[in-house]
Amino acid sequence: MPRRTLLALAASLILLGAPWLLPPFYVGIFAYAGIYALAAIGLVLLLQAGQISLGQAAFMGLGAYGSALVARAYGIDSFFTLIFSIAATALVAALIGYITLRLRGHYLPLATLAYGIALASGFTAWHDVTGGASGLDKIPPLGLFGYALTDDRLYTQLVWVIVLLAVLGLARLRNSRVGRAITTLESHDGMARSFGVDTTVLRIKVFVFSAVLAALAGGLYVHLLRFVSPSPFSLLTSFKLLIMAVVGGPASAIGGVVGALTLESAQWALQDLLARWGATGNLEVIVFGVILVVMLLKWPQGLSPALEKLLPKAKARRSDGAPLPVRTLPADRTDLLLELNGIGINFGGLQALADVDMQLKRGEFVGLIGPNGAGKTTLFAIISGLLRQSSGTVTLFGGKMPQSHSIVREGMARTFQHVQLVPTLSVLDNVALGAYWRTSSGFMRGLLALDDAENARVLASARAVLRRVGLEAEAELAAGSLPLGKQRIVEIARALLADPQILLLDEPAAGLRFQEKLMLVKILRQLNAENVTILLVEHDMELVMGCVERLVVLDRGRIIAEGAPKDVQANPAVISAYLGGARDKAA
Amino acid sequence: MIDTALFLLVDGLTNGLIYALLALSLVLVFTVTRVVNIAQGEYVMLGALTLADLLQGRMPGTLYLLVGGLALCILLDAGRWRRNWRGALLFSTGLIVMAVAAALITRMAISLHFPVIGMMAVALLLVAPLGVLIYRFTVHPIPDASTIVFVIISVGVSMAVQGLGLLIWGANPYPVEPIAAGGLMAGPVFIPYQAVAIMVVALLSMGGLYLFSEFTLIGKALQASAMNRLGAQFCGIPVNLAGGLAFLLAAAFSALSGMLLAPLITANYEMGFMVGLKGFVGAAMGGLADYPLSLAGVMIVGGLESASSYLASAYRDVLVFSLLIPILLWRNARQRVETR
Questions:
Q1: Contact B157 A105 (CB under 8 A)
Q2: Domain ranges of chain B
Q3: CATH of domain A3-310
Q4: DSSP codes, B104-164
Q5: Does domain A336-586 have CATH number 3.40.50.150?
Q6: Which residues in chain A come in under a pLDDT of 50?
Q7: Which of B321, B323, B340 should one mutate to test binding to chain A, selecting the residue with the greatest count of A CBs within 10 A?
Q8: Between chains, do B332 and A99 touch, taking CB under 8 Å as contact?
Q9: For chain A, how long is the longest CA-to-CA vector?
Q10: How far is CA A490 from the centre of its chain?
Q11: pTM listed for this prediction
């Protein structure tokens, strides 16, 4: 067995055995640490997706009150009421996510803060049902079919079993199809959509799952304490959970556990110390606040990377599956794939594109050139659905433009002028994102590791593509560690893995060395021979002239010339666009 | 009935204008530095408690914070001594002079029994620089961090400052004298002079900020940094100064609102946080970036708050913070119109 697995097993055994070894007073503390760890793990997942919640404790509260009140009032087994309250919390989270996560800008922290306070004050205000600020006692213990879990040690062990399952599940998720997509959410929204990720829906899913973990934690809390009151679910708890996630670090779910254990121990130690000095009130928040600020300034990745360094490396993942099925492209070269009619777009007063008409037939290899600022990248963004034109129509594969995250499904993939790789992810995983639309394992399958076979096929295909572009040796390196030229090749590999009918390349050769350029040309020719349609934006004229069969020249948002490379090269309008009106000025 | 409605209207307007000063601070800080400053409300608390101390003839605890902060500033600058000892010497001397001056002015104000307005000015002098210090400690070291990081940092700042408030002032509330006691009868409603003062100060602040940003070079530089940080930097605008200035002005506006609010509700160490958040709910209407819309937002918040404390006081905070949901729905609808 690999050493990493052995270590993980040993750590799990210690955590599971601890309740039986600790003195009774500490068993309770250990149980609450596990409960907070569960809620903090939810926040860690959220941070991985570049989101944040300042109201995590309110979701704990919903889970707690929902389960406690129903179980107390109707005498239903609390196992079922817990499930009910988790489902109810998920519904509330989905609603909140739906109205906040579609908005541009950072409304989520504010929204979560606001509902965090609204819900917490609601628990107090709805006195008749919740018992108000003084709370309600006689909450039934966790039970199923008449059996009641009243032994604290057993309960603590159950809590930690759940925590470990959550850590394991999220570790699996991170290496899955959905996990790869989650890493793009923080700063690569447009790229993720052009590879088929419906980023809004995925954001909502992540938010809901993080709320579910909080609700589960809240339910476990209340059936352990057997008393429910608003104060444990106040804003201060939300902030503490946030500190746990930050201290532990967002890199992996273990961060939530590390953070919870660290912070809970720190809290007990501090309170003890402060009490000895005769201080009253929650003065430990000063230290917590300072810890939070200093962590983010000095160690934004938290404690877990330091922990990771001490551990043996994870074993290589399975990538031995049969490659994914590939579509065979018809050789009929008269098929009209893409048609632009009168495309125009304004940014404020700037007319970036005007009256652009263009056609792309199957199997064509077209170059789009023009001076800087001519509108090439803007046109690409419109073709790939990331920008909406102000006027004109785009017809793709004979139909209307689909939503941006469905375009790759129809068969169009692209690369980006400014490289859009997830720098912390391995090259292999970055490329594997290209196969997102060709596979179907969802959030739950990733979590439960039911996607193993499919994932192996994806990774096998990704390796095959990397071999084709000559980057097989770099497969396991972090994408951000490669030089820019190689990162561009990774971009192309990812687009290839999307199995496109049309390939849009935005300056793929910028920053490439001569040998790399030769290989790029070879690959493009090969693809074209396989009937892939290519639209290429490039400044390296030699490269463009050497491969394309037709050129379109854009200048100041308008098409000024079109035709075979030779004719375009001799076109006086093109020459003046590139060299300026007077030749001698350029010389 | 009409009387009640009028009373609630005046009350709502007063609340709204208090929150307006907060919204002003939040928008200013967000547009210039991209910081969603959860800790903005703590300046409200600092302003109110500093004023309370001054009016009762005590040296305010804020002075310790200021001196401590300046000392930390000198410590963080320690690396400069080796590279450029003249600059470092000048810098630390300047800060020490500032600390001494602040202490002397405070001493003088207390022994001369300044009137309320004079004490407010001294309190502003003590609290506003704390904004710059916090900028120096938390934003300046990581100018390119993501919004999320800044949000979390401001949570930490809020916890630390609130805890320090508890350490310095304890949990007891402090009464604060109003600028002018009594009030006037406008038809059937009684309008306290303090409410009039709030209106005057809020309007003057907003007008002042407008004139400052439209008609002074520094104000224009601030606007430029708000629109495009990188562009402003290329034009030779020191964006760090702009950020510090935004934090300074924001701290001043918020502290002012705390001093105006305190006579109505007494001052205590946790009064600021909620005020700050209500400013946020209002400012969310303008997407944290639009002054007039934020003003409309806080007026709605203030009005809803007065109405709900009259009709369903237990649910006041529930209602006020749930207001964010219709505001966000409205912004959703607007966004869709914009992108079509």
A1: no
A2: 2-175+185-339
A3: 1.10.3470
A4: HHHHHHHHTT--HHHHHHHHHHHHHHHHHHHHHHHTTT-TT--HHHHHHHHHHHHHHHHHH
A5: no
A6: 582-587
A7: B321
A8: yes
A9: 95
A10: 19
A11: 0.90
